[in-house]
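Methods — Computational structure assignment.
A single polypeptide chain was analysed. Its primary sequence is given first, followed by the predicted tertiary structure written as structure tokens.
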Amino acid sequence: MKKIKKILVEQLKVGMYISDLDEGYMDHPFILSRFQVKDDGVICKLIDAGIRAVYIDTSKGLDVPDAPSYSDILKNLKNEMDKIAEDKKNGEDKVKVSIYDELDSAQKTYNEAGRIIRDIIDDVSKGRRISEDKAKLSVAKISESITKCQDALLLLCSSKNKNDHIFQHSISVCSLVVAFCNSLGFDEQSVNSAGLGGLLLDVGKAKIDNKIINKTLKLTEKEFNILKEHVAEGRKIIDQIPDIPEISKQIICEHHENYDGSGYPKGLKGDEISKFGRIAAICDVYDAITSDRLYRKGLIPNKALSKIFEWRGSKFDRLLVEQFIHTIGIYPTGSFVMLESGRVALVIQQNGKSLLTPIIKVFYDSIIKKYVKPVEVDLSEGFSDRIADAVSPLKLKLDINPMDILLTL
């Protein structure tokens, strides 16, 4: 009988079967995520790669009797995340305008940021100095939009094209960093400086061979090590900009550092990583693992948050992870959810007073397998139905875009 358990890498033995690396949705130097451990060299390679835990299939290899099962881990994660949501129940709703009122402006801001980041990447690839003034203006507009209604821009960021991921990732991380820093109470200048770092996060990738950047299969170990050089390349690029804020530099240079010291390029640990570097690391990974790649599907937002939550204290600052959940919600805007009645809805706006009762738009009935007339519902206002779980529209065989649902009357 198949039983998946999570163990530390140090507990691995020859004869065990790895069913998934704990970093299965992250870039790592392993072509496969499922394989038999045939020698100690594989274990050493996992440790050297900074992988701290793996999932083993006890039906295909040796067991660790007292290791927690995958189902128990998921249950405990859900209970802990729900507790965080309960603690937020009496919060203040900070939404200034509805998503509909901000959507057009957010769309223009998003498109403009896309053009600017494309120009920046083009300039870097051709050896030209980048124009930071346009980037700073774009970040200021992103910050303004997020302040009015962060759901509008974050919903746009959730509608992604897997063939354009570098540009979209830059905008998404910038938006997430701005929203996160806003919720943490940083002043406007610090928020904008952090946003600039988020927008320029991967600028160093313009110096990496396009064959590696655009590869449709998993990277080899050699290719992965070359890709990691984008951080150092990014540092060289921003060092040519005399007045770039220190906060922006911290984000560009530290977004791949892990809280437990297993990251790169310097292997910084804990408070050795700046607070803005720790913030950016969470935003970067969240967007990365929710994005489709040509070689894998991204996680749905709620499941991605569960992974982020699982990695708290190892990859990420524990307290910041909890604050990140407070920022984007248990069911982030752009998520699809299954209600207890079997109806399916899109989360279109967070309710600041409760993370478990966002504003949703019901559009499909999974029982009769038919689309229904879209109905907008604020779950905090005593609606008879409740969210049962997050859901992937693909599993329901629904080929839909969040923006299409939002704009359907």
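Note: Strands lie at 4-8, 17-21, 35-36, 53-57, 336-339, 343-351, 354-365, 370-378, 387-390.
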